[in-house]
Write a structure and sequence with these properties.
Elements (H helix, E strand, L loop, with lengths): L11 H12 L4 E4 L9 E4 L7 H15 L9 H7 L4 H4 L1 H20 L5 H18 L6 H14 L1 H14 L5 H29 L2 H22 L20 H7 L2 H29 L7 H5 L5 H18 L1 H18 L5 H29 L5 H19 L3 H31 L4 H6 L1
Antiparallel strand pairs: 1-2
Helix pairs in contact: 2-8, 2-9, 2-10, 5-7, 5-8, 5-17, 6-7, 6-8, 6-10, 8-9, 8-16, 8-17, 9-10, 9-14, 9-16, 12-16, 12-17, 12-18, 14-15, 14-16, 15-16, 15-18
């Protein structure tokens, strides 16, 4: 028999590049099983999710990152009465935590590259229990605002690093679906936090609500510490990098147009959500609706729609592309915002459900796109920058629509929010185009 020809040895650099491509290849696999003629055909396989415990742990990270963040919203009228404070003053119990997030997120992103992903997530989960429980001991509004600010400082260690963990541990064919499951966890966490504080305060007292949130978060930290696998694919920071400035990753991202476009999209996403749900309450307490404050609190149930729709959308994002997904999600949000102009309450609720679902899908698209826009080894810094812009957008979204309201009421607010959503569509179509240099190198 003739000898089998020996394949030529691959160049080392080419071998490494091919290994990386094989590890991060999309969900299309090459097979000839379906073709008797032996011709190769492409067959799409279902995204690989890995161990169920890991998926549940990631979902819980999203849940417990957001269960405390907006928990005081149903208690604001009570705080105004108890502490003899204005609406703006009690509103600091919400904005203080988001301000803490905006401050801590980019700093954490800078210094987290050298740290174990799981250790940071678990440590942050346990740490956030402390200010949550201590908030129950506050005897003044200033003390409560301080503990809420400290909560915001610690929370980015959960969701900034969890997003980084997802982009590094799952392949390109699975990251959008896993990210959508994580975003569903954030939606459920935001809903449960408001629900727990409302129910516990109604039956016991507001202090007990923070105690319950602390205990629930502690249990979640224990589960995540047991079920979340240690990272496997994180690139170690070069030894020489320790001599470089820790600000270099952020400076590099500030020169990366695709990262900047993603941060801009994140700013717009939370601007739309906060602006919509803050000022629609003024619309619904006025005629012809005349809803009570208690009835308004039930509007947050529409968040649960995103809990179901977002993972389903995650299955389609790898097929249609993240930019197309972002465009479709913002069109859905825009249609929902227009629907709230109706004077029929079920249509308004449907519009709110559509709008927040579009926001959740947009967030899944933006955080997934950071995997493509930022280099491996610098993703924590990119995500920290994104989260900072995201929460600045939420802060601005709570203030700027008030000027629109003063000029034209709720229709003017819808016009402003809709304009921001159309800007997001343009950002996704223009700013998320593949880099020419990257395509040439590929």
């Amino acid at each position: 028999m003739p000898d089998t020809p020996t394949p030529a040895p691959r160049d080392a650099a080419l071998s490494e590049a091919l290994d990386v491509l094989a590890a991060e290849a999309p969900a299309a696999e090459l097979t000839n099983a379906a073709e008797p003629s032996g011709r190769f055909t492409f067959r799409r396989r279902f995204p690989t999710l890995g161990a169920p415990r890991a998926i549940v742990a990631v979902f819980l990270c999203g849940l417990f990152a957001f269960i405390d963040l907006y928990a005081t919203q149903p208690l604001l009228p009570l705080f105004a009465r108890l502490f003899h404070a204005s609406k703006a003053q009690v509103g600091l119990t919400v904005s203080a935590s988001t301000l803490g997030v905006a401050i801590a997120a980019p700093l954490l992103g800078i210094f987290a590259e050298r740290l174990s992903r799981k250790r940071v997530i678990v440590a942050s989960l346990f740490a956030v229990v402390v200010p949550t429980v201590l908030a129950a001991t506050a005897h003044s509004l200033q003390a409560l605002v301080f503990w809420r600010f400290l909560q915001g400082i610690l929370v980015p260690g959960i969701f900034v690093i969890t997003i980084t963990y997802i982009t590094e541990e799952w392949g390109a064919d699975s990251v959008a679906l896993v990210m959508s499951l994580y975003v569903s966890g954030t939606a459920l966490g935001g809903f449960l936090g408001r629900l727990i504080t409302g129910i516990v305060t109604a039956h016991l007292a507001w202090r007990y609500s923070f105690t319950v949130l602390g205990v629930v978060t502690l249990l979640g930290a224990i589960v995540v510490s047991q079920w979340l696998p240690h990272e496997r694919k994180r690139v170690a920071v070069r030894t020489g990098a320790r001599k470089e400035s820790a600000l270099l990753p952020i400076l590099a991202h500030l020169r990366n147009p695709r990262v900047l476009a993603t941060c801009w999209a994140g700013f717009n996403v939370l601007f739309s959500l906060v602006g919509l749900f803050t000022y629609v309450t003024f619309y619904l307490v006025a005629p012809p609706f005349g809803l009570s404050i208690q009835t308004l609190s039930y509007l947050f149930v529409v968040y649960l729609v995103g809990l179901v729709v977002t993972p389903a959308a995650g299955l389609w994002l790898p097929r249609i592309g993240l930019s197309v997904g972002m465009v479709g999600a913002n069109l859905l949000s825009f249609a929902g915002a227009l629907l709230t102009l109706s004077h029929v309450l079920p249509f308004v609720v449907l519009g709110l459900a559509m709008a927040c679902t579009g926001v959740f899908i947009s967030q899944a698209c933006a955080t997934s796109y950071l995997r493509e826009a930022s280099p491996l080894g610098g993703r924590a810094a990119a995500i920290g920058l994104y989260v900072c812009c995201y929460y600045i957008g939420g802060t601005v979204g709570g203030v700027v629509p008030s000027y629109a309201w003063a000029r034209g009421g709720w229709p003017a607010c819808v016009l402003l929010i809709g304009s921001v959503q159309w800007i997001t569509i343009v950002v996704a179509l223009v700013g998320w185009r593949p880099a020419r240099t990257a395509l040439a190198a590929g």
